[in-house]
Amino acid sequence: MLELNLVRHGESEGNLRPTALGVTDLPLTERGRRQSHSLGRIFALQKPEAIYTSPLKRAVDTAAAIAKPHGMITLPMIDLCERHFGIWENKSVADIKRDFEEEYTAWQQDLTNYVISGGESTKEVYDRCTRAVDELLAIHKEGSIVVVSHLGCIRSILAYLLGMGIDGFWRFQVNTGALCRLRIDEKANGVLTAFNEI
What we know:
alpha/beta, 6 helices, globular
């Protein structure tokens, strides 16, 4: 039996307002650093087998705080990155609605398959993140691992491992600096044992 710990990175500057914050590489805020240290204290009590992280700075720094008590190195995986929002990247929701009205309307009509110009669709994010978790589950069959990532990727992994498919993507709201735990059996079925713990 494997325990999979999904951690959303601590608060970054882009989380202070409603924006399409995807691959823009913003640092943690002071609150985000405190959240990361709190996560480090949680995992100090139980050493994971491995710590995987998105290569974006807000995730890397969160993962480093978790790794520090054990002197572990973190393992970056590009497929754990946040969604690429293309022409909407790091723009406020209000600006997107105003400046990209046609594109925003098209996205609202097909949240799953619409590809943002220069970016990714929800389906592309889901496929990428579930491919990453399949790789990890092929390596780790028991013990405990940590995955530090972003809202879009964690939503994808939760929906996938809980058998909801991509339709479950929008049913999860995971806070910054929060932890979700799943117990994974030998058939890769997930049981949610903790959600949005801070």
